[in-house]
């Protein structure tokens, strides 16, 4: 298979990024070779575009990318969203107000087109996550409501997050958005609750990308390592994962690659001609 017949959609944390959060020179060189040969290389991440770009300086991705875990498709070349799916802000606001009142120690974030907005005090932030997700600012829920929201993240004690879920259920909000408990390689050992637009994930965004002119007729290859990549891998024509991927991801992947610390993306690109 030729590069100009394919497109790669690549997760960041745990996949393109090594365990230090860096992109290896081997991966950078392989992506450059691939795109120069006509391949399309796109990102598929839970991060917002502004933050994503801070960590991809010099990485030659050249195609519309999936951001915010599927709530947006972002075109780097035009610096604009090609597709957006916003969350139910009224329902999320009710959840966040409950958190502020009952669980004031929770770290509460909402993601917009421009920024990550913290609607909790600065002293509650998960500092390692915050350091890697600038730029951000601290606002009230009322101030945050002036702009549309893509999603919300809640960091804190498992018992507090479990109570938030109970509040969502008894308030009749369960069908207003999707709830995902997850962890992140960025902050090992920490669990968070992610609230997304109903029915939105990286897989639904990849389905949207299939209809974009640049992707028509290409074989779509997806690579990821974690639960939020499952739908992406299921929608792709070819699914790949690094050796460090969890069991659920490995089970549905067509290709098993070296780990994210062993230049997994370079290995994938080297295998494309044989696919």
Walk me through what this model shows.
The chain has two domains: 3-85 and 200-274, 3-Layer(aba) Sandwich (Rossmann fold), CATH 3.40.50; 89-197, 2-Layer Sandwich (Hypothetical Protein, Haloacid Dehalogenase-like Hydrolase, Chain: A, domain 2), CATH 3.30.1240.10. The protein has helices spanning 12-16, 25-36, 49-54, 89-102, 127-132, 141-144, 158-170, 202-210, 230-235, 247-252, 264-271, and strands at residues 6-10, 40-43, 65-67, 72-75, 80-84, 107-111, 116-118, 136-138, 151-155, 177-183, 191-197, 219-223, 238-242, 255-257. The chain has eleven helices and 14 strands. It is globular, with a radius of gyration of 18 Å. Strands 8-7-6-9-11-10 form a six-stranded mixed β-sheet, with helices on one face. A five-stranded parallel β-sheet has the order 2-1-12-13-14. The chain has 275 residues and is α/β, with parallel strands linked by helices.
Give helix % range: 25-40%
Question: How are the strands ordered across the major sheet?
Answer: 8-7-6-9-11-10
- Could you state the order of secondary-structure elements as H and E? EHHEHEEEHEEHEHEHEEHEHEHEH
Low-confidence stretches: none
Total number of beta strands: 14
Mean pLDDT: 93
Summed up, what is this model?
The chain has 275 residues and is α/β, with parallel strands linked by helices. Helix content is 32%, strand content 23%. It folds into two domains: 3-85 and 200-274, HAD superfamily/HAD-like (Rossmann fold), CATH 3.40.50.1000; 89-197, Hypothetical Protein, Haloacid Dehalogenase-like Hydrolase, Chain: A, domain 2, CATH 3.30.1240.10.
């Amino acid at each position: 298979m030729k590069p100009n017949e394919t497109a790669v959609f690549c997760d960041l944390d745990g996949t393109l990024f090594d365990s230090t959060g860096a992109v290896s020179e081997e991966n950078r060189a392989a992506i450059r070779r691939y795109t120069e040969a006509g391949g399309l290389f796109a990102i598929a991440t839970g991060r917002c575009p502004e933050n994503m770009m801070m960590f991809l300086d010099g990485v030659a991705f050249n195609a519309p990318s999936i951001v915010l875990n599927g709530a947006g498709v972002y075109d780097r070349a035009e610096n604009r969203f090609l597709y957006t799916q916003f969350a139910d802000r009224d329902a999320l606001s009710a959840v966040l107000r409950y958190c502020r009142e009952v669980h004031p120690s929770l770290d509460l974030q909402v993601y917009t087109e421009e920024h990550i907005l913290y609607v909790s005090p600065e002293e509650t932030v998960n500092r390692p996550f915050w350091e890697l997700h600038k730029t951000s600012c601290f606002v009230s829920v009322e101030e945050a409501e002036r702009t549309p929201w893509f999603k919300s993240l809640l960091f804190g004690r498992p018992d507090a997050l479990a109570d938030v879920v109970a509040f969502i259920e008894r308030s009749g909000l369960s069908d207003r958005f999707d709830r995902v408990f997850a962890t992140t390689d960025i902050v090992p050992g920490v669990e968070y609750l992610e609230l997304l637009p109903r029915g939105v994930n990286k897989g639904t965004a990849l389905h949207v990308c299939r209809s974009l002119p640049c992707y028509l007729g290409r074989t779509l290859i997806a690579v990821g390592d974690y639960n939020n990549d499952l739908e992406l891998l299921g929608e792709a024509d070819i699914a790949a994962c690094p050796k460090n991927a969890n069991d659920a991801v490995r089970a549905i992947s067509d290709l098993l690659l070296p780990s994210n610390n062993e230049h997994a993306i370079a290995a994938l690109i080297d295998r494309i001609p044989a696919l």
